[in-house]
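Researcher: Next sequence.
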Amino acid sequence: MDPASIAGTVLVFVAIFVSTFLEGGNPLSMFLLPPILLVVFGTIGAVMASGVMRDSMSLPALIKRAFLAPKMDGSVVVESIVSLADRARREGLLALEEEAKKVEDPFLRRGLVLAIDGMDSKEIREILEGEIETKQRYDKVGVKMFTDMGALAPTIGIIGTVLGLIHVLENLSDPAKLGHLIAGAFVATLWGVMTANAIWLPIGNRLKRISDLECEQMEVVVEGVLAIQAGSNPRLVGQKLRAMVATGPPEAEKKAA
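Model: Next structure:
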């Protein structure tokens, strides 16, 4: 699991609460149940109304994926493909039949099975690249839901503030309550802006980054499977695939730093 998402979210809320405390405010004053319920469930409801039920049902899984997705390491896949290419070159493609069953990556396993079955390389590329395109379209739907929630949450917060101010106007005859009621009204706007920029938009961006990394790795697998089928030199296969895997700044930039 990559802890960046959890650590970043915790850091944002710690910064908000500590800054409130240092300015002499009480962080607990932000925790008013009515505006929190309005903003959170109002935002989710607005997004549900914008799509289909199938997309809405995937929200819990998408949130779990954003925070708990396994850490991506393209070099592991490359080394696995190089090992398979080496064996295929020495013993033939059919020697990978049992080896393919032990491969954990389902996309790589499917590609190997297609190659072992003797399918044409052009057809293998079309099938595997079709899977990548389908995944990109599916992931795009999830990303859009969270970016939409980031755009809607502040507006829902403003609705809560307007409702609060209406309640203020209803109590003008009791000046002792006005300060508390006005402060409570603006808490809704606070939660709208805060959830948009600390939760929904970061989750959307995180899902997009995870999707990009997974698709990059799948593209590496496509080239690796085709190289194995072609009986390419394992050393050259490794060099080609490692050049496709983004593991950090290019060597030239590292030396310059």
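Model: The chain has eleven helices and no strands. The mean pLDDT is 88.
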